[in-house]
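Re: beginner question about structure tokens

> Can someone show what the tokenized structure looks like for a real chain? I only ever see the sequence side.

Sure, here's an example I had lying around. Input first:
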Amino acid sequence: MGGLLIKQLSTEEDRVVVIRFGHDYNPECMKQDDILASIAEKVKNMAVIYVVDITEVPDLNSMYELYDDCPTMFFYRNKHIMVDLGTGNNNKINWALTNKQDMIDIIETVYKGARKGKGLVNSPRDFSPQYKFLKKKKKKKNKKKQKKKIKKIKKKIKNN
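And the corresponding structure tokens:
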């Protein structure tokens, strides 16, 4: 099975090959599969999407370090394309994305970069935990500012 997959990678010349490794019964993989299935038609000119059960390709498990629940990897002309998502692991996406547009944007970035000969592309969005923390912190500050503004407006209304 692993050899067949490698052959398929080498036959695709003009599109990115997106492979979701994992188990079909895994809830994380099910989420990722739903996202991938829903965008397949939109990205058909840029990418072809495969789902691979890691129990079927044990030789690839060690080669690509497929130890996570739901890794997704990108290949172009039989070459692994890495994506800097801000998480420290550029080899693969280790979680199920919940936003269709995020996956479309990542595939488009991989496609454009790979066509230019790049082996590593930067994700259009930062998925680092630090960024998520800062974003939440900013939201809290914004809520406080909004409450202050509302109080000022209410005071102005009372005074008028």
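Each token stands for a local structural state, so reading them left to right follows the chain. The chain has two domains: 2-122, 129-160.
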